[in-house]
Write a structure and sequence with these properties.
The complex is a heterodimer. By secondary structure, chain A is mostly helical. Chain A is built from six helices and no strands. Chain A is flat. Chain B folds into two domains: 57 residues, no CATH class; 238 residues, MetI-like fold. Chains A and B meet through helix 1, helix 2, helix 4, helix 5 and helix 6 of A and helix 1, helix 2, helix 6, helix 7 and helix 8 of B.
């Protein structure tokens, strides 16, 4: 396809396409970066505004304050263990049954396939989402800090 | 002679059926290791997926705490009737359908457009970079996304409002104003899901035969015409299946997202079926009523999915069953 010569309108489209996609990538990435620098900036200074790309008053106090809360570690451990156990168990169990079902001569193959179908309707309950359970505590904490600050 | 023939007939049939079950048993025995493979998964599913389903009977019972789920007396469809005749019913259904409808209207085409735009990019390094960036929001939970949004949109030092201040505009409390609820829901939904959703369309686009494009270009078709006449018909099947899933889940307006975006100010338009179930079930302790609403939702969703499947089979020639 690259052998065919591009017309002018196609070139214009390409330029706009690149700009649009770059903008899209920026929008997806920037919020993470913004919060990241907010963690390393002092709260009072950050609230004044104007901190966009780099921390202005660097501090590690926010982190030390957050890690003083034991709940963070306990919720992190719960998330981590749920994910690890869930992924390991899920992988082993589904791999085993998938191998068995893939054998076409197995009697009762259709039955077991339908038996598994239930899984498809519960796809939302994957381990990655289980990991989010821990973040609820984090969210509550954030709200607490917020109200204390205001 | 005759005696032998007469006795041979019944004898001939019995070994035949006997050998059939015998064959099956033999085949089962030959695959005994495979059943051992199946066993743990089946036990797991029975224990954690199928056994808890008896709880759904709660929807038809007059639940008494001291009698338990199985011991409570049956009451029929009373909870369903209560729900349908309750004043909340139409409000909740309306909110759910509006939010889902907006998500389908704006959120469903977003990954398709993104995939089409990405497929036009020639530089594979750039393409991969943008793809990786766009997948990122998929890996964080809604709780984190809403936290990010709270930080970014807050009138107290949030970036958007700071920007507005620098332009001389008044700051707006985006997360707590009723008018901004729908835009926030739809935009955050696109932001989180468009990138990940584009994967399936990108793989479908890469499956379209290159020869078709070459032939079309020789015939004088431009890029836009190629997209319209080759790419889109080529990924029609994928779009159809994704659409069935989207319509089938129309009563799932996004539980985590909506629950976290709910504020006293927007409660009137943000109360969806799932959050209503949570509130009646846990906050008011009406477990049987909440179960009935949940069951109603599941049955309705299954019916919707079947209808869309039939329509899709007729017009797009694809279906999920």
């Amino acid at each position: 396809m690259s052998a065919i010569k591009e017309t002018k309108s196609q070139k214009i489209f390409q330029v706009f396409n690149y700009i649009f996609l770059l903008l899209f990538g920026f929008i997806t990435l920037y919020p993470f970066w913004y919060v990241f620098i907010a963690f390393f900036n002092t709260g009072r200074d950050f609230a004044r505004g104007g901190v966009y790309f780099w921390p202005r008053e660097f501090t590690l106090q926010n982190y030390s304050l957050a890690f003083q809360n034991d709940q963070i570690f306990s919720s992190l451990m719960i998330s981590l263990s749920r994910t690890l156990i869930g992924v390991a168990l899920g992988l082993v169990l589904t791999a085993l049954i998938a191998y068995a079902i893939s054998v076409k001569t197995l009697p009762g193959r259709t039955f077991f396939t339908f038996f598994l179908l239930h899984h498809y309707f519960r796809r939302r309950h994957d381990p990655l989402l289980y990991a989010s359970a821990g973040f609820r505590t984090y969210q509550k904490l954030l709200a607490l800090c917020d109200s204390a600050y205001l | 002679m005759t005696n032998r023939i007469q006795s041979a007939a019944p004898v001939a049939t019995t070994p035949k059926t006997h050998s059939k079950t015998h064959k099956l048993l033999k085949r089962i025995w030959e695959h005994r290791i495979l059943y051992l493979f199946i066993f743990p998964c089946v036990v797991f599913l029975l224990l954690f997926s199928y056994y808890p389903m008896y709880g759904a009977t709660l929807a038809f019972k007059d639940y008494k705490y001291n009698l338990g789920i199985l011991g409570s007396p049956w009451i029929g469809f009373k909870h369903f009737e209560d729900f349908i005749s309750s004043p909340e019913f139409w409000v909740v259904i309306k909110n759910t359908v509006i939010i889902s409808g907006l998500k389908i209207l704006f959120g469903f085409p977003a990954p398709i457009i993104l995939a089409l735009l990405l497929s036009e990019v020639r530089k594979s390094k750039f393409k991969r970079m943008i793809q990786t960036m766009s997948y990122l929001p998929n890996f964080v939970s809604w709780v984190v996304v809403i936290s990010l949004m709270t930080v970014i949109f807050t009138p107290y030092g949030g970036i958007i409002n700071n920007f507005r201040k620098e332009l001389g505009l008044e700051s707006v409390f985006y997360m707590g104003t009723k008018e901004y609820f729908y835009p926030m829901v739809v935009l955050s939904d696109i932001w989180k899901n468009a990138g990940w959703g584009s994967i399936v369309y990108l793989s479908a686009i890469s499956g379209v035969s290159q020869e078709l494009y070459e032939a079309a270009i020789i015939d004088g078709a431009g890029r836009l015409k190629c997209t319209w006449h080759i790419t889109l018909p080529g990924i029609k099947g994928t779009i159809g299946i994704m659409f069935i899933f989207a319509v089938g889940g129309i009563l799932n307006a996004g539980f985590d997202q909506i629950l976290l975006l709910q504020q006293p100010a927007n409660n009137q338009i943000s109360e969806i079926l799932d959050t209503f179930v949570l509130k009646t079930g846990l906050n008011y302790g009406r477990f049987e009523y909440a179960t009935a609403i949940g069951l109603f939702k599941s049955v309705f969703a299954l019916a919707l999915m079947s209808i869309t499947n039939v329509i899709s089979q007729k017009f797009l020639e694809v279906g999920i069953w």
